[in-house]
Structures are given as structure tokens and as C-alpha cells.
Amino acid sequence: MLNISARIRAALAALGLAMLAMPCAQAQEITVWSHWAAEAVKRGYVEEAAKRFEASRPGVKVKITWYEKTALYAALRTALRAGQAPDVFYAEPDQTDYIDNGFLADLSSGLNWGNIEPWAKTAWTVGRGTYGFPLEASTVELYYNRKLLEELGVKLPPNGQLEQGAFLDLVKKAKARGITPMSQGVGDRPFPGAYVTHEVLLKKLGTKEYDDLLRGKLSWNDKRVVEALQFVKQLVDAGAFPASFTSLKLGESHTYFHTNPGALMFQMGSWYTSRAFNPTDKGGQPAGFPLGIMQMPAMTGGACNQCKTMAVGGSFVVNAASPRKEVAIALLNSMATPEMGNKWLENVLVQTGIKTDASKVSGPHADYFKQLARANEGNTYYFGMPIQVMQGKPKEVFTQVINNAFPAGSIGIDDVVKQMNAAK
Amino acid sequence: MSLNRALQTPWRAVTVFLLPALTIYVALTAYPVARTLWNSFHKVLPKREEFVGLANYAELVQDEIFWRAVKNTLIWSCTSPLFEVSIALVLSLALYAKVPGARFFRIAWFTPVLMSYIVVGIIWVWIYNYDWGAANQMLRAVGLESWVMPWLGKPTTALPALIFITTWMWTGFNMVVLLAALHSLPSEVIEAAELDNCGWWSKTIFVILPMIRATVLNLIVLSFVGKMKIFDLVWITTKGGPLWSTETVSTYVYKRAFEWSTFDLGYPSAVASVWFVIVLGSVLALTWAFHQREKLEY
Amino acid sequence: MERLKQVVLLTFLCIYTAFAAGPFVWVAIMSLRTTTEISRNHYGLPEMFHWEKFPDAWFNSNYNIYFTNSALVVFSAVVILTLIGAMAAHCFARYRFRLNRLLYFVIFSTIIFPPQITVIALFQILVQYGLYNSLFGLTLVYVAFQLPITIYILETFFARIPNDLFEAARMDGYSEWAIFWRVSLPIALPALATTIILNTILLWNEFLYAVVLITDEDKRTLPLGIQRFMGDQLEDIGMIATGLMIAIIPVVAIYAFFSERLIQGMTAGAVK
User: How many Å apart are CA C84 and CA A255, to the nearest integer?
Assistant: First the structure.
């Protein structure tokens, strides 16, 4: 008996020593799970950043698995609970439940926040910690086909913004010519259908009251809210959206706009380009497509007609349970430099939370970027998409009602007001 | 001597035979049910569990989405058997006489049932496609343009569209079962009825139907229970939308457990527990109702 | 008049058959066309038979992995199910003991349980025992899932075997296990075949447990894998159709081969 236990003790001791020695000798692998499987330019950016990081840290390998968003979220939800989550993963600021359950590492001391825009940092700050690296930011833009607009004989004012009535007329004109006025599809995402409504509401209410509305402090019965909804209803009734609105997928809505059958306008996050500038057989827009950017219409009696939504989008977070936290945070930090920020701008053509120097942007798409910058001149921003600000039941009802049923024309304004108020 | 042997229960053998099955059953069926009930009285987060008493159930009573899901599922479970079994009954009676090429037809009608709900869902999403789906194309071809609509996209048509799919799947199955039942009926009784100069109609109602009663009732219960459990089909087609018109209790449980931005498993466990009681209750009620009718006959 | 009735009947039969089998035929045709061809005409016949799509899906899109996983899990589960199900059914049918009917009823009643009542807790249990995201864990769950119906079908059959056979065997000095193995099982071969086919078909198509309990790409089973081509860009209808065929063909083949046996078995349970 004694012999056996002595032998066991010796074996354990040897094993222990071996294990101590291991981390130094072995290469470290950082696992990353990310969205953007279908967006080549963003993948390129992240993979490039990973390569640079590997070069700067010999012995470290970065393994990235690319997912499509819904699949990623489902996998993470169960993997986190099972303790099998990767070191770094993609997240968006609306996922406060990760933070509430202690799954994310606090990045406040690890990242170089001097290189990051303050509003981007706020998006990820909860309590006393900041939990995400805000890589992608985007605004909600209204893209349009310049050629079709010309054919319809409508000229935009210099600031690119039509009045409410003129916009409705434009929609009716396009419809009369057999052109779908606005491409949009909510088949596989909980936000695109809501763009038109929440941008109109934002302009009508201004940032403070719009925020109140989203947080349940302002009733949906408010006169201005109802007027805004009435305008949207007029658009819907005039046939602004495609008939296949409810089943059209996000990727399909892009091609609906620029390739087949072609629509006049397309309201989308400014990350539109990360799909549009792909090669055409991967869903990109045709070469030489006459892309224009206009503003959502000015609302009559609107409190803030130059208001627009800007939101932090794709970000990266670190798994709090990761044994390689410091290395993971260092990986993210390697992207928090003005150089990487500009690289993002030039290649991905979407805004970023990293502080950048817009004047230094060059490259093949610099023209588009100038166009985007012009379209954002003089804008006041409200930071956050509705589904990032709302949680739980209000978020679910918002998704079903404002994103889906209302723009599809399935319910009327009274129903919308009733359901949104009931869900507060 | 054989009597003695029969009375001796060989406990060792019984244990050996039953143990593996019982172990798996207890570990992966009975225990999870108990655990779900336990969960329903707690807030179950990844790193801690908090006893909340009846709070989840209180929230459940107020939850409109839950009650909508219950309504949808019950509508589905009650209407499906009506369609699937009655159509199958009518057809199999009509075919009872002669069925040329029986084996080929049986295989063809059975095919929908062999495909997983996922496959069926994908195919029917294509069929219901607004622009080029077979459903709308056929309507356009016969000039019924005004009936063309996004079947799975409108709250009023989504659930009926799904019910149509399950009817398509299961009617063939029911037909095959009923035909087998019909063919196994004792021919003497049918011949006797013919000798008695029963008309075709009364022969069917008063002679044949009562004899296959048990089969028909079984099929109804089977169909009912099957629709109470349904998940895959809804998940792959509408995910419960639009506007919760196809939300079923199973999709709602899944969403609350794995999709809503909360890690709490307590509330969906409460939903599952309540649903469990409802399902058991309905099945018991159904079988009781059918047995009562049977008892009245004798 | 007879003639007319026959013609009407036959026409009706053909229409219904087209309705029932039509979608399947349509997918089969689409699986041999490319997505571009399909977009031009959704209901046309293949101009060229693109047989290469099948190897393409198999080797380049992980279908071989999904198929293997499904085959592995289903095969193991069905083997275990048949064995322990038969053992339990034999026991319930042939031996009289106090708890017999009670235990049988408890197990039988779980046939109507909705899976939702167990899926959440199964998730927690598998995570706790480190079986989450493993094919082994999924196999065990599948065994538990199909056990009640297997025992039910087999018990009905075993109960019908005349007692004299067992008496004779006992007098010949067979042990209880030998009686099971050499007397019950061979006679029950038809019922066993039925349960094997039934379980294979049901587990091959199972989705809910697979989607909750498996997340790794390389452990996915076929129902999960089918969604691989459903990216959010243009829907790759051609490849999805090919993938669907890979999922359907094994089941249809098993069915066509065993159809008579299967129908007998399934209807034996439903027909009283």
C-alpha cells in the first residue's frame, strides 16, 4: 500500500513540474470567432491584423473561425455557458447580457483608449468597466441610384435632403414607373425594416426625446410620434417596399437594389460597401454603378432634421475565462492605432471607432469616402441603434412590430402605438 | 411443476434486462423532467441559481407571447387531425375497392413523411416564394393574380400555410395506414352486409367505419400529439413570425432559452413545465373521450 | 359506369400522387442544375446533368463530414436502442413482477412528452458532465429519446409469443439470457426490423436536440449541415438542392427497400 502511494505521489510531482514548464515551451494559440464570413474586405482586414500580430509575437498563432451572424450568436450562447468559448469573439454593444453574466474581460486598462473615439468607448462602457473594442461604426445612410433619379426627373437640393412631401411624391413617381422605390428585406435580420421608422422618429423628436421614446419614458401616443408614423404609413401604402419584403434576406436586398430588379433607393448602414464592393458574383454591385447618397427627408416640424443614427457595430471582446487574456487583449490593442484605423477606412470604407485622420485616406475608393464624408457634413448624431438601446420584451416587440409588421403593411398605426406602449 | 416455475420471478434476470434501459431512462428522461421543474422555480444563470418561487409562473400568466404561442399550437393540433385524417379516410375508402399499382402509390404517398421537417421546410419556402414559387405561379397561370401573396409573410396566412404543409406530409401516411386497416377487415362481415342489401353509403357508415374506429382514433391522437411537439418546421420557415402568428410553444421555449439577450434558463423551464401539463392533460382528455364513446357502444 | 369510375379514380390518384411526390421530384431535378440555370427557369428540365455537384457538395462543402457524423450517431444509437430496448421489452412482456405494469406505463407515457420539457435540462446535464458538443452525448440523448417507442413496439410483439415456447426452453435447461437471445429475438425479427427502420428514419432527421447540443462545425449532423448553403447572400438554390438530395436519398432507399415490412410494422401498432 505504502509503496503504491509513494509511487503515485512521485508521478504527480513529476506531472506537476512538467505542467509548469509547458506554457513557456509551447506556442500559444488565440482562438477568434467572428461574423463577416460573407464580407471579404472585413475578413481581409482582420486576417491582416492577425498576421501582423503573429509577426510581432513569435510563438503566438491566431486561429480565426468565420461565421454568419445568427449562427455565431447561437454558437456563442451555448459555448459560453458550457465553458467552451474562444479567447476573442465578435460582439455588438447590445449584448449586455454577456457583461451581466461576467463573460467579458474588462478592457479599460489593457487597451490604448487614447486612440479611440470617446463616443465609441461609451458604447461599450457599463458601470466602471469597458468591455469591447469598437472596431466598426456606421451611420444609417440612404443610398440611391443616380441614373434612375435623373430618369424620374427629380433633382436633389444641394444638401441632398428633400422635404417630407417631395419625398412621398418621389416614391409615388417611381412606383408609377414600375420601379420599386426602396429595396429592403427583413427575412433574416431584426433591424433593416425599422430603419425608415426610427430615422423619421429621430428627426421629428431630436436626440433627447428619441432616446426617451426608446427607453420607454415617452409614450408612443405622443402627437409627434403619431405624425411620424403617419408619414411612414403613407410611404408603405404608396408601395415603397418590395412585395417580398418579409421574406427577402439582407444579402438579397442588396442585389435587389443594385443588380436585379433594381430599386431607386436603399436605406442601409454605411457598411453597405463591405458587400457592395465585393466582386459581382459574390453579391457586389456592378462596375460603374451610379451610387449616390442622399439624406432621409426633412420632417415637417422636425426638431432635428440633420440628425442621424450612428452606431458602434462589429466589435471584438475578450473571454473573461480565457487563460490567455493578456495576449488576447494585446491582439486587440494592435488594431487600436491610427494606422490600422486609416487602413480600415480605406479598405472597408465604413467608419470606425478608432481615431482616424480622414484627410490621409487614399486608395481606389477614396472618391466614395469623400462622398460619404460630404453626406455626413453637419450631421448631429444619436449614438445607438434601437435594438442596441432596448432589451428584453420591448426589443422583441419592436422587432416584430416596427421592423416587420408595420413596414409590411400588416398593421395600422393604432396597433403599433398600443403594442409598443404595452411592451414598455 | 410449471406453475411453480412461473411464480418464481427470476429477479436477477429481470434486473439485468431492465437495468440498462432504466438507467438511460432515469438519467436522460426522468431526471431532466425533474430538473426542468426545479429550474422553473429558480433564476438559472450560468454562474449561479437563485430561488424565485412562483415569480416565473406569475410572469408566465401575463406573457402575451406565451399565450399566443399556446393558441397557435392548439389551433394547429386541433385542425390538423381533422384535415389529415378525414381526407385520408375519404380517399382510402374510395380506393378501398381497387388500387392498381398499389405498391408504387404507397411509396409515393409515404415520401413526404420520410423527409425531415428541415428538408420539407426548405422546399416549401421555395414553393411559397412570392416571385417564382410554384404556389403563386400556379395561381398566376389560372388567372387568379389577386390571390397571389407572400404566404409565409403575412400574419393571416402564415399559420394556415404551415398547416397546409403538415397536411401534405401526413395525409399520405394516414392513407397508407387506413388502407392496411381496411384490407385487414374480415371479408365475411362485408359480404354479409352486401347480402343484406345495404346501400354503398350505409355499408360504409354502419359497417366499415365502426370496424376501423380504433385505427382512426389512434391516428387522430398521433396527429394531435405530433403537432403539439412541432419545432423544426416552424424554425426553418418562419421562426415564429410574422408578428408571432406562427409562434409555437416549442419555438418560444427555444428562443427564451437560447436567443433572447438573457442567459436565464428558469423562465423557459417554467414555460416548458406548464406546456408539459397542458399536453398531458389534453391527451388524457382525448383518450378518455374516445374511451367513453367506446364504452357506450357496449 | 364502372369504366367511368375507374377513370375518375385513376385520374384522382395521379393528381394526388403528383401533389405528394411532386416537390421531391422537383428537388431531385434541381439538384442536377446549377443555380444560374435555375434562376432563369425554376421549373425547367436539366439541360446538362451536372452530376459533379454531388461530389462537389460531398468533398468541398463538408457534406462528407455531416453524413459521417449522422451515420455514426444514428448507427450507434440504433444498435444500443435495439439491444437494450429488446431486453427491457422482453422483460416486461414475459416476466410478472410487482413493478412491471407501473414501470412499463411510466416509460410508455413519455412517448407523448414534448421534447421541450427535457431539452433545457439535457443541455445543462451534458454541460455538467462534459458531454456537451460531443457526438457521444448526442448518441445517448437519442437513445433515451427513442427508447419508449422502441420498448412499446417490441413489448406488444413479445407478448404475443406463446408461452409454451418458453416453457419448453426452460425445461431444456436454457438460462434466462439464453431464452432471450435464442428464443425471443429470432421470433421477433420482424418487429426488430420495424423498430430499426423507424428509429433510423426518425433519428436521421432529428433536428432540435442536434441544434442545441452540437455547435462545432465538424461535429454537425446532416440536418444542421443542410443549412450550410443558406448564407445570407444570394441563396445558392442549386447546391442546397444537391445537399437536400444527399440527405433524402438514404432514407428513401431504406424505405423503398423495406417498404412492405415497415408498413406492416407501423400499422400493426396503429391497427387494433
Answer: 55
